[in-house]
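Note to self: user wants both folds in one dump. Writing first protein now.
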Amino acid sequence: MTARSAASARLTATRREKEQVTPLELFFDLVFVLALTQCTALMADVPSWQGIAQAMLILGVLWWSWVGYAWLTSVVDPEEGVVRVTMFVAMAALLVAALCVPEAFGDLGLLFACVYAVVRVAHIALFVVASRDDPSLRRSVRGLAISTALGTGILVGASFADDGLQAALWVLALALDMGGPAFFGAEGWRIKPEHFAERHGLIVIIALGESIVAIGIGAEHGVDAWVVIAATLGVAVAAAQWWLYFDVVALVAARRLEQAAPGREQNEIARDSFSFLHFPMVAGIVLVALGLKKTLGDTGEPLKVEVATALLGGAALYLLAHVAFRWRNVHRFSRERLAAAVVAVALIPVATEVDALATVAVLVALLVVLIAYERARFAELRERLRHGAAEPEAPSAPAG
């Protein structure tokens, strides 16, 4: 073998055959855990509207980088060829980006933008290699490269701006980066539907784990009876969020994706239901984690309006994402979850007047009532869905 052919052999990507998520993908996702923790910490250190807005913008940028690799590893085997080493490089860059989160709008803005660019360039480079013999995929990759270049370039420019202009540039960068796939077509992409759905389910679990981490950090000043109660209620909130997604929603969404016609239909469902609509789910979970962390810090004091909005508004955002998720997947409207979201938002003024512990208890009660109602109303259909006997298009499916 010549030196040129040996180098060409190394610069290859093996098409994915298995549907199961690989250990390397789980390893890659661990870095995203730090990113979530850092976003929560940023909001906790600066519990203001500005701090929350900045954390959500940072989370959006990091989320989109994770989404890119979810699409990539649904095309290629991440543990073969050049992909494995490149993913390690991307992990290192993503880790540095996570470390920069507290000062991403400050002194570390340029470093954040540069290492984020490394993450995205590595992603595009791997897609270029993977699409070598697939002209349709290559065309889609070119479109993605354009939106990625615009987004990352604007982020670099934003690091030299101040205050309002900087925030506006971040919004523009995120909009261009995330909006790109909606404009250059969905026909050329390739996914393994079971793998794709599982990967997003696992990232929801990782986000819920951030709620558990927040509880532990919030109790750093000591553990007494009130902290024990608050921690128990916090776990109940996380468990309810898990139930609302994994009991039926994840099953229906995965089946809908698997049954869609490969190509444009399947890719658009994957883009809308998973890449786009899972972001408000994850953002809602992170906002709830902030509320739980602050509650554990002082159970007997009312929450500040910003934190109360994060806790209850985050729960509402999570539920509203489920409403949109159901509509996109099976064209059914979840009045129950919409009503629960409205109640959660209506409780925000009350949360600023009562003890934080009482607010969390009310949130737990709201979510438990929602789960119990859906379980009773859709009992027969739920049983059929969980045993694989019902189609996701069923008109009354409680699919989030």
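First done. Writing the second protein, which came from a different request thread.
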Amino acid sequence: MIACGQDERRRAPAFLVTLSAHPVLVILAVAVAAPLLAELPVSRRVPIVVLEVLLGIVVGPQVLGLVQADSFVSIMSTIGVAALLFMAGTEIDFGAIRGRPLTLALGGWVISAAIAFLAIGGLHVVPGVQAPLMTTIALTTTGLGTLLPVLRDGARLETPFGRMVLAAGTLGEVGPIVAVSLALSTRYSTWQEFTFLLAFLGLVALAAAVGMGARPPRLLSLLGRTIHASSQLPIRLALLTLAALFTLSEELGFEGILGAFAAGMVVGLATRGKEGELFRIKIDAVCFGWFTPFFFVGTGIAFDLGALTRDVATMLLIPTFAILFFVARGIPALLYRNVMPKPERLPFTLLTSVASLGLIVVITRIGLQAYHMNPDIAQALIAAALFSSLVFPTLASALLSRAPARVPVPRSG
């Protein structure tokens, strides 16, 4: 096998052999190519993260073999996960969705979890469907980052419809992250886990309160001055907060993703308003420009195309999971029948059914490592998430273009 691999490597064009020795160059080239492709003048833009995963498959061992899923890619991908969830946390603004939108979203997510649990229980008749808990959690996700451009481009972000979608998307991010962390916390007893979770959340709340309230003039002057210097102290403080809460979360027996998400919420709350605009631009550049491409491209590199075609049952799981995304997150839309006009209900169902590709990848990775999830199931879940990210927003946008937009409302309860 080794000799065969070496022969194939010698037969490959010289420039491809050269590129395969420089994985950072290849990954960053993909990171540039994805947004350029997303700018092509087509009727519906493909989400950049989907393109990053697809291009990662192309440069990975399944196609061109320019990058292998080795320890370096794995480490950088883990850092990319933390950065992605950190940035997701900074986007959460409970003040914008408090009141009825948040209440309905919470009820909807609980219903989604129940539906997903029953559906995965039914899938036990399919041989090889393992790790039902992790699969159940995966079906309750919503890709908030994918929804924002649809709402913004359709001028519905500040409308009642937009607030309902944002609330459902927020719970579709927060709920699965907390659920995964609790599901994997096996180091302590149940009561100890609950106590540690309360203590952790209390610490996060305290950090957020300090970040929002304690703003001594000398500290503000220092941060304002150093954000323009080579030290970039505010950015380093934010990354230290990320590392600290990530580590603390793991030490308490939870998944590090909970700490990363909490760190983002703390930093996001502390930098709200016009004063934090420059900081947010810079932290966006650091996380989305450098760290997260390693995660999404790395996901494509590690993606096993062969697993999808290994048998008929695995192939059928892709449309099955795509339908279950729609059912699990779509049925709770019935809760909104009295607060949402009929033309908006199906678009709402489609948008909230868009799976969070980032969270799906994280959940399947954890399932493979901790719960011995069947690799074929993991690949089918990722493929279904890609499908939902491509198809559901497109259909929702087409339907919304024919529905009258309601008047934007102020962000009050």
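Dump finished. Worth passing along: DSSP finds 20 helices and no strands in the chain.
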